[in-house]
């Protein structure tokens, strides 16, 4: 794959290496329980404060898929936003995550993605991005709770 000869040279490369996006949020106990219910996660650590107090972490924790879905949503929103004179089409092709420490209810969580590489893919007729990300609890020791890597396909499309 090479960075030359995109099919519509009049459109710019829609993403740059080093580009990043961030978002801060707080997950309430109610949001954690609702998300777990919606995804069929019956683990008491997401629903039952008493069970959570008896467990290793001692408090309600967010399900891993809750934090990662918020991270994927951030990437999807950012990399599909309109450009100047063109629209972006986005497909999330792959994400991998590692869980490093729990996310507790009511903590400020900072989500972050940064573009590591951008490559033209002629067969897919778009730009493949590798992005590196993390979710960090704001008032903790700044070690990530979740780290991730994703591959996205972004296409620049002329605006009619």
Automatic annotation (TrEMBL):
It holds the Pfam family MaoC_dehydratas. InterPro entries: HotDog_dom_sf (IPR029069), MaoC-like_dom (IPR002539), UPF0336/Enoyl-CoA_hydratase (IPR050965). It comes from the Bacteria. Gene3D superfamilies: Hotdog Thioesterase. SUPFAM superfamilies: Thioesterase/thiol ester dehydrase-isomerase. Residues 24-115 form the MaoC-like domain. This is MaoC family dehydratase.
């Amino acid at each position: 794959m090479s960075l030359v000869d995109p099919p519509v040279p009049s459109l710019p490369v829609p993403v740059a290496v080093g580009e990043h996006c961030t978002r801060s949020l707080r997950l309430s106990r109610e949001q954690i329980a609702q998300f777990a219910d919606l995804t069929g996660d019956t683990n008491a650590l997401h629903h039952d404060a008493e069970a959570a107090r008896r467990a290793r972490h001692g408090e309600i924790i967010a399900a891993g898929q809750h934090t990662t879905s918020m991270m994927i949503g951030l990437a999807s929103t950012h990399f599909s936003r309109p450009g100047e004179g063109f629209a972006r089409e986005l497909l999330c092709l792959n994400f991998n995550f590692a869980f490093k420490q729990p996310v507790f209810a009511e903590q400020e969580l900072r989500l972050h993605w940064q573009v590591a590489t951008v490559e033209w893919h002629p067969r897919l007729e778009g730009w493949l991005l590798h992005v590196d990300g993390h979710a960090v609890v704001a008032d903790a020791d700044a070690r990530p709770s979740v780290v991730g890597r994703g591959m996205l396909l972004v296409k620049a499309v002329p605006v009619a």
